[in-house]
Write a structure and sequence with these properties.
399 residues; mainly beta; Neuraminidase; 9-stranded antiparallel beta sheet; 5-stranded antiparallel beta sheet; globular; disordered N terminus; binds calcium ion
Length: 399
């Protein structure tokens, strides 16, 4: 079960040049790390010169792309991506530990799945679990627990939930256990509420929204046993344009769950659970203030306040409770345009976003934004570029 430290972690595509700059030119990605300029050949392999720069930032707020300590003291990413590209493909979701020094990334790569850990100070990157340890498939959802373990779920039929018991340990000492009480399904988003209930989804076209109530909440035994509930709404979510819909949490064993348009990522802010519904172009909000009776409303949707939103997939909240929304690539391409990242301002008393603003457009047509995550200070927005390319970008909101 333990993972041995892999050899030859350095990526052979990196070469050293004695220059001082951070530039993106002609199909080559140059980044300064500690006074040394690196060339990332994998970018050159993946993009034609006409597709640069990596992304175009948009919107009134503005965003800087942080790619090196020379750009800002906020971040030191050394070889972020060279090593990940070299070892595990398909970087999907991201999670920070509470110290925000370590960035964990799941690799949803079928039978080659795993989880990597990047030390954002030293740049050291390790694979902490992967397919050589266990028959993982499509590792996806990532969530830090209140008792300092790391959950990872499989986005696959019969997908399992695992708990990594010591995610900050040496890679060869990392241990994990399966948590079958959470159920088996295609699960991407994971979130805890303040009572220690764990929420998830089944990512299929008519998928459900789930709540696991532990017998021993907020303890290391939380995920050993408990009750699984599903969300049952009085009306189809497609009827939401007129207002909020009453819904209830009922035990999975007795309820007939309500289907939603392929739920992907979820996010909890205060007493609100947000769920991205990819196929219906909606982000819904679910009130968690009552444990039994609730209501479901639209937060952002293509039919109301976000006309160009297409296939909302990943969600991230900032320190003010606003949401970033990343699109699914298949649906944005279906619309005949590039993949986009959005910012939705919260605060409307009815639970809708006040406005939904474009943040960035991905200029590489076969990739999507994925695994978006904002640090606690709101100074770093992490996003994977997932598809034919495979690396992390960090954006800094400018206020
Ligand atoms: Ca996924
Ligand atoms: Ca997914
Ligand atoms: Ca996804």
């Amino acid at each position: 079960m333990a993972v041995s430290t892999r050899q030859s972690r350095s990526f052979t595509g990196w070469i050293t040049l004695k220059r001082v700059a951070v530039v993106v030119v002609s199909g080559t990605f140059l980044a300064l790390f500690g006074g040394t300029l690196f060339w990332a050949g994998w970018v050159l392999n993946s993009w034609g010169a006409a597709q640069l720069p990596v992304i175009t930032t948009e919107g009134e707020r503005g965003y800087r792309i942080l790619i090196s300590p020379a750009e800002s003291d906020l971040l030191a990413i050394n070889g972020i991506t060279g090593e990940k590209v070299a070892f595990l493909p398909k970087s999907d979701m991201n999670m920070l530990d509470p110290s925000e020094r370590y960035l964990f990334t799941s690799h949803e790569a079928g039978a080659q799945s795993g989880v990597t850990r990047i030390d954002l100070v030293s740049g050291e990157t390790d694979i902490i679990i992967d397919y050589r340890d266990h028959d993982f498939t499509n590792l996806d959802g990532l969530l830090w627990t209140p008792w300092d373990t790391l959950l990872v779920s499989e986005e696959a039929t019969g997908g399992r939930l695992y708990e990594i018991l010591n995610p900050l340990s040496r890679p060869d000492e990392v241990r994990f256990v399966e948590r079958p009480a959470f159920g088996k399904r295609r699960n991407e988003g994971l979130a805890f509420d303040t009572q220690g209930n764990l929420y998830g989804v089944n990512e299929v076209p008519d998928g459900g929204i789930y709540r696991f109530r532990p017998d021993s909440p907020l303890t290391p035994r939380s995920l050993e046993s408990g009750t699984l509930d599903v969300l049952v709404a009085d009306e189809r979510v497609t009827d939401l344009k007129t207002g909020r819909v009453v819904a209830r949490w009922e035990p999975e064993s007795t309820a007939s769950l309500t289907g939603f348009g392929r739920p992907e990522d979820i996010e909890i802010v205060g007493n609100t659970l947000y769920v991205a519904l990819t196929t219906t172009n909606e982000v819904i909000s679910i009130d968690l203030s009552d444990p039994n009776i609730t209501s479901v409303g639209l937060f952002a949707s293509a039919d109301t306040n976000a006309p160009d939103l297409s296939g909302p997939d990943n969600l991230a909240s900032d320190q003010d409770g606003n949401l970033y929304i990343a699109e699914n690539i298949t649906l944005s391409r279906y619309r005949g345009r590039k993949n986009q990242l959005w910012f939705a301002r919260a605060g409307d008393p009815l639970g809708r976003a006040i406005d939904v603003e474009l943040v960035a457009t991905l200029n590489s047509p076969r990739n999507e934004f994925s695994g978006i995550l904002v640090d606690s200070a709101g100074e770093r927005l992490f996003t994977n570029v997932l598809g034919t390319d495979n690396y992390v970008l960090v954006l800094q909101p400018m206020r």
